[in-house]
Amino acid sequence: MADENNKNGLDCVSPDPAEREQPSPAPGARFYEIRVKGHLPPSWSDWLGGLEMRLLEDEEMILFGPVVDQSALMGVLNRLVHLNLALLSVNEIKKKESSEEK
Questions:
Q1: Do 59 and 37 form a contact (C-beta atoms < 8 A)?
Q2: Low-confidence residues in the chain, pLDDT < 50
Q3: Which residues touch 24 (CB under 8 Å, ≥6 apart)?
Q4: For 85-101, what is each residue's pLDDT tens digit?
């Protein structure tokens, strides 16, 4: 039975990007979190550069994953605009570095 809070029946909630294990992106790729107003089905992930989707209850969605360069990032953002999804934020997620002092 689908969760009643998930109005469109999509089950694509992923762990918090800062806590999840990051895939091995292409050399030079950066990890981004893009927040938009609206929902898309998970099948759109490939069309949006393979970014993972996390649907939020307030009709917002977070796309996250590695993006190879600024051109690829602009491509994703342009596609979101053409889908009439309001862009709320774009953040680069920095990898946590261990700061062990010796």
A1: yes
A2: 1-23, 98, 101-102
A3: none
A4: 999 999 999 876 545 54
Q: Using alpha carbons, list the distances in angstroms from residue 86 to 69, 89, 92.
A: 22, 9, 18
Q: What is the pLDDT of residue 27?
A: 72
Q: Give me the residue spans of the domains in the chain.
A: 40-93
How many other CB atoms sit within 10 Å of the CB of residue 80?
Answer: 20
The first and second tokens of residue 31, run together, are 């990890």
CA distance 62 to 42: 12
Question: Tokens standing for 8?
Answer: 């469109």
* Contact by Cβ (8 Å): 56, 12: no
Q: Tell me how crowded residue 20 is: count the other CB atoms within 10 A of its CB.
A: 11
Dihedral sign computed on CA atoms, order 59, 76, 52, 83: positive
Check: pTM over 0.70? Answer yes or no.
Answer: no
